[in-house]
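Ticket #4471: complex job returned nothing on first submit. Input attached below:
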Amino acid sequence: SKIRGDTVHEQSSVEAMVLEMQDSKSGVKSSEQKLNITSIPHVVTGQDILAWIANHMKVDAQEAQTIGTMLVAYGFIYPLQDHKKLILKPDVSLYRFQTPYFWPVQKWKADNTDYAIYLAKRNIRKKGTLDVYEQEYYKNLHKWLNHKWDFIVMQAKEQYRAGKERNKADRVVFDCQERAYWIVHRPPPRTHSAMDYGVDRLIDPNAEENKTFDYYRRIIIFTQQAIMRSKVKSTVSLGAILKHMTTYKDHDPFLAPCLPSNPWQTDDSSYWDLNMRNVEIPTKMRVERWSFSFFELLNDPRGRTDFKVFLKKEFSGENLAFWEAAEEMKWGTASSISEKAQTIFKTFLAPGAPRWINIDGRTMGLTVKGLEHPHRYVLDAAQTHIFMLMKKDTFYRYLKSPVYKDIQKKALSPAPHNFTPSQLEQNAQNRKPGINPIIIWQQEEEERAKAAAAAGPIDIKKLMASKLDRK
Amino acid sequence: MCDQTFVAITFGPCDSCSQNKPLMNIYLQNEPVNYCSLCVELMACQGLAKGETVSTLRAESENLKAKLEEERAKLHDVELHQVAEKVETLGQFVIKTRRTLKGHGNKVLCMDWCRDKRRMVSSSQVIMRSAAVCVLQEHAVTMPCTWVMACAYAPSGCVIACGGLDNKCSVYPLSLDKNENLAAKKKSVAMHTNYLSACSFTNSDMQLLTSSGDGTCALWDVESGQLLQSFHGHSADVLSLDLAPSETGNTFVSGGCDKKANVWDMRSGQNIQSFETHESDINSCRLYDLRADREVAIYSKESIIFGASSVDFSLSGRLLFAGYNDYNINVWDVLKGTRVAILFGHENRVSTVRVSPDGTAFCSGSWDNTLDFNPV
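Support reply: We reran it on our side without changes. The output follows.
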C-alpha cells in the first residue's frame, strides 16, 4: 500500500464537522427530492450548506464557499446534478452527504483493481455508458491488470447481481454514492479533485521509528550540543525582529508605495530602471538602505562600488579585496580552490605581500597552516575577522564620510506617477521583458576581466609611500 | 549577529581520528570536542557499555530533552504579542492579481524568481522560463519525468536547475536564442536515491543545495557533480529547504514529513537546531526564533482547516504569505498574529508562493495549471 503524506491530519476535524452538519436538529435542513422517477432522501441545497458553514464557523460568504468546496472536492458531500464539477454552488443545486464507507481514507489510495471492477460493472449494466476518459482508463486497466482480469469480471458480475437485489431507491442512492467516490478519486479531465495528492511519500511519517540504542545516542549527542549552544533572551531577539521590521517598513512595497510606482500595478518599469544593478545615480531609498547594515551595503553592487570609492580614498582597499577573494573561493568550483588559495596567500597573507591584511597572529597562524592543504572554508576565520573589522569600524566611518554624504545629496527622489486610465492602457500594451540577464552578466564579466588586467602587478613602493603619508 | 555559526571550528583535525575533515562541534561529558561525521556515527553506533541498556539511554535522552526545554524556558521573558503591542496595526489590504501565466498544461509544482525581478522559472512536467511582467514565455523544456517538483534560477540569471521523480537535479544553461533546444546542454549534477523535492543555488552558480524524498539534503559542486556535503537527520522525506540570508551565509533550514524543521551548518553537515510540531498542528504556520531557540507564534484560524504548502515573507518580514491546500492564500501580520488578507484566485491547491527579489509582488503557482502575480 502506498503512503500519502499530505491530507492525513486535516480529516478528523472535517469529519467531526460533517457529522454535525447531518444532525437532525442542529444540522443542515434536508428533504426528500425526486431524481428522475426515484425519491431520494436527505437531500440538501448548496445555499443551505453555505449558510450553515458561515453561521457555524463564523465566517463570511467567500470563506464559507472555500470550506464548502473543500468538502465536495474531498468527497464528503457530492452533487446530485452536474456531478463532474466538484464545487459547492451557492444556490438551490442539490447535494447529499457521502456515506462514511466512501469517505477519503487516510492510509491507502483508491485501488486500481476496485476501479476496474466498478467500470466493468457499469459496462455489464449497460454497454456504452462509459465516458471517453473512462474508456481510456478501462483500456489501460485491462492492460495493467490483465493477469487478474478474470477475478475482476467475476467481482463485477457479483456486485451487479447483489445490486439488483436491492430495492430501487436504495440502489439509486448507492449508485450516486459510488459514482461520486470515483469522480473524486479518478477525476475526469478538467475536474479538480482534492484527492489528487501528488507524489507518494517514500517513508511513512506515521510509522513508529525503530528505537534502537543508536537512535537514542543520536538524540543525546544532538540535545547536548543544543543545550550548550548560546542563546539570547526573547526580549533581545524579538526586539531585534521588531527593529528590523520597523527599519524596513518604508522599503517594503506591500507596506509603503514604491516610487515612482510599482511596475506590476502601472506597467511602467521606471522603478526597475532607476534601480538597475550598476546605475550611475542611485535613488535616495536605495542609499538609505545601505546605512541599515554592512550586509546591505555589500549585498547591493552599487553600494559596494560606492564603498570601494571610499576605501580607495583611505588606501585601505585590501580588506574588502581579501573578503571578495575569499567569497569567490568559498562559492566557487571545487577544482579552482587550490589555485585561488595560492593567489590569495601570495597577495594578502604572505609576509611582505603586496596587499597584506592586518589580522591577529593566532588567526594568521591558523590560516597559513590550513593553506598547506586548502579546502573551501580554509579562509573562514580570517574572512570573518576582516568582515567584523570592516563592519565595526570602516563601515561607520564610511557613513560619516564625504563620499557617502555626497551620494546621499546626488541621489534621486522620483516623484510618484499619476497615470490616467488611458495612459495605463498604453503602458500595458508596451510591456517589455527588460534586458536579458545573460547580457548583463556578459557585460559584467567583461568589466571584471578589464579590472583584473588593469590591476596588474602592484607597485609596492608607491603603496608603502602612500601608507606612510597617511600615518 | 544572528548567525552564531561563524565562531565554530568546522574544518581541521578530528579530535578522535586526527584526519583533516569537516568537523561537528559536540560534547563528551560536557567537554566540547570536534569530531568528523564518521567518528560521530561510530560513537552513536558503539556497542552498549557496562550498565547501559536501551532503557537507560532512553531515560538519558528524555532528561536531556527536559533540560533543553528548561534552558529555553529561562529565555522566555516576553511574548511576541507583547512586543507587538507598541506597533501600529496594519490597514486593510487589497491585493489584486495582475498577471496570470497559463502556459502550463499541467499542475504547477514549483517556481523561482530571477534576480532581475521580472523573469522566473516554473515547473510542472514542463519547465517554463518566462518574463512574468509581459506574460511572455521565453523557453520551454519538456522533461522526461512527469513530476518536476523543484526548480531554481541561478544568481547570474544564466542557468536554471530542476528535478523531481527522476531523483536527479540537472542544470540547464540558458540561451539568448529563443529557438535553441535547452535540453541538449543539460547537465546532471545531483543524484539522490529518491525523488528530488527542492533545490536552490547558494551564493553562486557553482553550488547547488538539494533535498530529497530519501530523507537527506546535499550540497553539490555544479562543475564536477561532486557531492560536497550531505545532511542526515530527518527520519522521513524532506520536502523543502531555504538558505539563510545571513552575512556569513553558513546555514540553511529544511522541512520534512517527520514534522521537523532542521537548521544545518553547510560546512560540516551538522544539524545544529531542530523544531518539532505535533500531529494535530498540521494546519497552522509557525514562527521560530533561532536566537532564542523556540517557537514564538502560531498563525491559524478555526475556519482554515487545510494545511499550508508554501510560505514566504514580504521584504520587511512583517507579512507572511501562505498558500494552502484549500486553494486560498492567506496573508498574516507576523507581529500581531492576525490575518490581514485572503486571496481566492485559484481553482486547485496552491503549491508554491514566492515573493519577488525586490518585494514588489508575489507569485503563486497552483495545481489548477496557472501562476498568478500579485502586488498590493
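The helical segments of chain B are 37-45, 54-74, 80-84. Closing as resolved unless it happens again.
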